[in-house]
Amino acid sequence: MAMTWPTPVSLWQPEGAFGPSAVVFPDRFPWTDMNWKGVRPADLVFYEIHVGTFTPEGTFEALIGVFPSWLSLGSRPSRSCPSASFPAIAAGAMTACFHTPFRIRMGAPRGLQSLTDACHGQGLAIFLDVVYNHFGPEGNVFADFGP
User: Fold this and answer.
1) Can you tell me whether residue 100 is helix, strand or coil?
2) Which domain, by its residues, includes 123?
3) Residue 30 counted as domain residue
4) How far apart are the first and last CA of the chain?
5) For residue 97, what are the contacts with CB-CB under 8 A and spacing of at least 6?
6) What is the pLDDT of residues 39-72, one digit of tens each?
């Protein structure tokens, strides 16, 4: 039986960290944030969230409904805890696919795009916590592609 490995730079793993990679065209998203200029460093007040547990749905798109709360706290950017794909539900910091959202809980790339676009529309920046040093023992296939 042939093994299926994700592409190391995959943007979407619809079947999870061990499934085949899917093609994503980020430029086909209907962005509305063309006037987004960012947030001045002096105005950065971070509000850290974990996408999978912050709302009952645990998805990127469900976070859009909590913007009034963030704005009332004076928060301008939000920082998402790691949201990349990993093989096991309980091991969120043990990333297998750095560039893909964790499909089981958080949603597809389009959900992350929707969240980013909506954040920018409200004057909020979004920062993703990428943990490049957190390779898990399961699903780490980078060595199979080269030294």
Assistant:
1) strand
2) 35-145
3) no
4) 25
5) 6, 10, 13, 17, 84, 85, 86, 139
6) 888 888 777 777 777 888 888 888 888 877 777 7
